[in-house]
Amino acid sequence: MAENTLVITADDVSSAAKKIKGHIEHTQTKQSKTLSQIVGADIFLKFEIFQFTAAYKERGALNRLLALSPEEKKNGVIAMSAGNHAQGVSYHATRLGIPATIVMPFGTPFNKVKRTEELGADVVLAGNVLEEATAEAMRLSEEKGYTFLHPFDDPLVIAGQGTVAQEMLEDIPDLDTLLIPIGGGGLISGMAVAAKAVNPNIKIIGVQTESFPSMKNAMDGSTHTFDSPTIAEGIAVKTPGTYTQAVVKKLVDDILIIPETRIEEAIVLMMEIEKVVVEGAGATGLAALMEFPEKFKGRKVGMVLTGGNIDSRLLASAIMRGMARDGRLSRLRVTMLDVPGSLAKVSEVVANVGANVLELRHQREFGAVSLKMTEMEMVIEAKDKAHADLVVVQLEEAGFIVSEAKTV
């Protein structure tokens, strides 16, 4: 690749759009009035969660599969993925009659492994991180004669992902900022090429979790450390692509690093406001808006909900932790006389305030209190932090000793 020459052009993205048309959803780009009010910017959401496999990765996977020779199709393909590229390859390879094998790291959410198998691919679990899974996929490619389909550092894959931006700007031409998650860089590279060709002044802002800031480190020589694991496993990439780094260096205006807690909050907020489920990587755009609202104030921002394949257990945990953070769930430690009626009195006070008791546990043997006292841990549900604080006040006024056990 010659210096200052990018691996793809806007024409490559347009070509990809024509090839995949009819097999990929042109997903809606819709304004979120509520999110716009919260962050002080005009926010538009691209709902890639409504692709058949619930992620944008189908675009690049299909564009790459359509370029295979007849012999390559017969021999089959292999890919490495934490989930969404896997499902995209599996679905479209099966649809096209191409044998597919997917290598996934140990620890990949069960729902992604199961769904990939259901879509027709053989799944091999290997390595603790994406790079180790890649090494195994490359080894099997050499041994079995499979064509390796890279999840992000491939021109055809990058061009396919760029169709996301092409559609967004067709639907909302005056977007002035695109906010895009970065793992290996395939999505932001394709989108940047497509978007800058339409509007050279559009701002392209990347987002990475503090657990995997690889592209940020590569771009500005920073030394952010890796602090895995992350809830955004779809962008948990330690080594970004060679092609993608070149595009990001030339076309991306900034890369923001966000904490894990913001991603958790964004998952819950997206569900409560937009009534949709997004995975960790898909929530990073909203997390960046919440962490750096001043950077987007007054701007017209397009944000990609890249995927919705979150593990059910992680989603449940994110919801409960979110409720604890904003005070809707509180764990209280209540000390009282160990006499009949004490527990009933506690329940009466909580009920009179309008809160709800979810869990109770007595601590007679292990509580650091008098033998004539008992200690009880109680989880309550309230409207908000102020409502939970009122429960504490009322319990104390009723003669109980109350302390709050921090949950998150």
TrEMBL record:
Reactions mediated catalytically: L-serine = pyruvate + NH4(+)
GO biological processes: isoleucine biosynthetic process; L-serine catabolic process; L-threonine catabolic process
Domain ACT residues, every copy: 331-408
Entry EC number(s): 4.3.1.19
Entries under InterPro entries matching the protein: ACT-like_dom_sf (IPR045865), ACT_dom (IPR002912), ACT_ThrD-II-like (IPR044561), Ser/Thr_Dehydratase (IPR050147), Thr_deHydtase_catblc (IPR005789), TrpB-like_PALP (IPR001926), TrpB-like_PALP_sf (IPR036052)
Keywords assigned: Lyase, Pyridoxal phosphate
Coiled-coil annotated residue ranges, if any: none
Catalytic class of the enzyme: lyase
Needed cofactors: pyridoxal 5'-phosphate
Cell cycle as UniProt keyword: no
Entry-linked PANTHER family: L-THREONINE DEHYDRATASE CATABOLIC TDCB, THREONINE DEHYDRATASE, MITOCHONDRIAL-RELATED
Similarity annotation: Belongs to the serine/threonine dehydratase family.
Designated name of the protein: Threonine ammonia-lyase
Organism: Temperatibacter marinus
